[in-house]
Specification:
63 residues, globular, iron-sulfur, two-stranded antiparallel ribbon, electron transport, 4 iron, 4 sulfur cluster binding, alpha+beta, Alpha-Beta Plaits
Length: 63
């Protein structure tokens, strides 16, 4: 089991950079209702690429 990414909904602007940066398919899901991304924790391997590209610092790995 991997440590997965966590999204801070207050900071996320829904830019979708994390979706494009992630090497694994279907880890991030954009929700039209709140215009934010959610993490499919069962697919995330905790590589941290999403954290690197997030301009709003809305993502972290782990806790």
């Amino acid at each position: 089991m991997y440590v997965s990414a966590k999204v801070d909904k207050e900071k996320c602007t829904g830019c979708k950079l994390c979706i494009f940066a992630c090497p694994e398919p279907n880890v991030f899901v954009y929700t039209k209702e709140d215009k934010k991304v959610k993490v499919n924790e069962s697919r995330c391997k905790g590589c941290g690429l999403c954290v690197t590209v997030c301009r709003k610092e809305a993502l972290e790995i782990g806790s």
